[in-house]
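Consider the following input, taken from an annotated entry for GNAT family N-acetyltransferase (Nonomuraea rosea).
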Amino acid sequence: MTIERAVAADAGEILTLQRAAYVAEAQLYGDPYIPPLVESLEQVRKIIEGAVVLKWADRGRIVGSVRGQVAGSTCLVGRLVVAPDRQGQGLGTALMDALHEQVPEATAFDLFTGHLSEANLRLYRRLGYRETHRERMDDHLTMVHLRRQPDRSPPQR
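Applying the prediction step yields:
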């Protein structure tokens, strides 16, 4: 199993994985039209070409992916996805750690998730993300915005 940069040719498989991974989120919020489920192949291809998109491949099958878009000194993290049959095995943590390493110039990593997505919130908090604010989108959805600021202090001796 390896984590590496995705290429444009991976867009279709990443989109399929993304849709499989986000079905549970759509059901949780009662909304089949959440952005990850309606994103087009061309949109995914453009993201891969213009951002840091990592994939985790296992014997030729993409089982996880994450995106990082650098804006100034901040990396905007999005679409962390793990195949439903591989969730709970540490792939999400490994992908996030790899993204943090791939964007060493970032002074902050920002992301958001829905308020009912407890597993996501636990993962992000475990990785050092702290809630910055909440944004009510409608009656059934509040976005929780989180930020991680890497420790840049010199090691203690």
